[in-house]
Amino acid sequence: MAIVEITQQNFEKEVLQAQGKVLVDFWAPWCGPCRMLSPVVDQVAEGHADVKVGKVNVDEQPELAEQFQVMSIPTLIVFEGGRQSKQSVGLVPKEKVEALLS
Q: Is the pLDDT of residue 1 over 70?
């Protein structure tokens, strides 16, 4: 499934109203660990057609980062039925990202 850029304007439609699980990657272009995690998130997105994957650039969308109390990046948050269900902070291996979705 294609990765969606999540903004304040489309967050409700793309995440809160989405059917099934949504994995949201909070990141920034200057963040080294974020750049290292990005290809892992891309691989997970390719391997899970049933999961929507979105990315939030915290520099461009500080309101969303604040709303979900994202203090460190990268932060991955899984939403199910419009509610936050799981979270991971920092650079993690693919297995940990997969575990968030199980």
A: no
pTM: 0.95
d(CA 19, CA 36): 28
Q: Which of 15, 34, 44, 100 is catalytic?
A: 34
Q: Give the span between the Cα atoms of 6 and 98, in whole angstroms.
A: 21
Has 31 been annotated as catalytic? yes
Q: How far apart are CA 66 and CA 17, in angstroms?
A: 20
Instruction: Answer yes or no: is pLDDT of 15 > 90.
Output: yes
d(CA 60, CA 78): 20
Q: Which of 4, 22, 31, 45 is catalytic?
A: 31
34 is catalytic: yes
Domains of the chain: 3-101 (3.40.30.10)
What does the alpha-carbon distance between residue 97 and residue 7 come to, in Å, rounded to a whole number?
22
| Torsion sign over Cα 43, 93, 87, 59 | negative
Contact present, 90 and 60 (Cβ < 8 Å): no
